[in-house]
Amino acid sequence: MTQQGRFITLEGGEGVGKSTNLSFVRDYLHSRGIRVTTTREPGGTPVAERIRALLLANDEQEPLDDLAELLLIFAGRAQHLARVIRPALARGEWVVSDRFTDATFAYQGSARGIAPERIAMLEQFVQQGLAPDLTLWLDMPVSYAADRLAARGGERDRFERERGDFFERVRQGYRARAEQAPERMVAVDASQSLEQVQRDIAQRLDQQLASWN
Ligand code: TMP
Fold it and tell me: To which protein family does this belong (predicted)?
């Protein structure tokens, strides 16, 4: 029987370097002989990417209701789980996702103000016990991340247009999640040099691989 793969997620606010570090994690696991599927949320399948577009669009005519936003996120997640995450894990591949449900607790819960119990209900309904085995939370002060985002330029999506205090609440939300599940979710100081961030990630992955073997 094929052994079930592991599920790793990367989390963090805007501009903390998730994409660069996602590639790093993928390459690192490859170098250890592990087959990896990389993906992202919102999105990860064609249908879920259409839901992502709805979530990120700046629609001046009709603001998206907070509850509708939450349900769209879980609708995309259900599709993503069914079409990508569960099949890959069942094939024995490891899945590395740029964001997952911790983001929902941080953004829709802590930042938008939806009660965490309601989110936990949907989490249970949609995921039925499936949760990440390891989450790397790339953490940095909101002001650093805002500078990086500004330097990147381009048009801002619906979330990136939020104000600084929104991102402070996102950060607090992630911190609370990490405190609740310290074995699974580890903070990585993303304000360090990229080399140091990646050394920290590699060290954590090594520890985790050793404990899983
Ligand atoms: P990205 O910046 O990682 O591409 O994600 C797009 C946005 O989606 C980001 O601003 C955070 C937001 N988001 C939520 O609000 N809740 C969620 O559950 C997820 C996965 C993302």
Answer: Belongs to the thymidylate kinase family.
For residues 102 and 124, what is the distance between their CA atoms, to the nearest angstrom? 13
Q: Other CB atoms closer than 10 Å to residue 205's CB: what's the count?
A: 19
Residue nearest to atom 9 of ligand 1 (CA): 159
pTM, two decimals, is 0.97
Q: Which of 9, 38, 39, 99 to mutate to test the pocket of ligand 1 (most atoms within 8 A of CB)?
A: 99
Sorted by where each starts, the structural domains of the chain and their CATH numbers stand as 7-212 (3.40.50.300)
How far does CA 64 lie from the centroid of its chain? 21
Answer whether 103 contacts ligand 1 (Cβ < 6 A). yes
pLDDT tens for 144-166 read 888 888 888 888 999 999 988 99
pLDDT tens figures, 63-83: 999 999 999 999 999 999 999
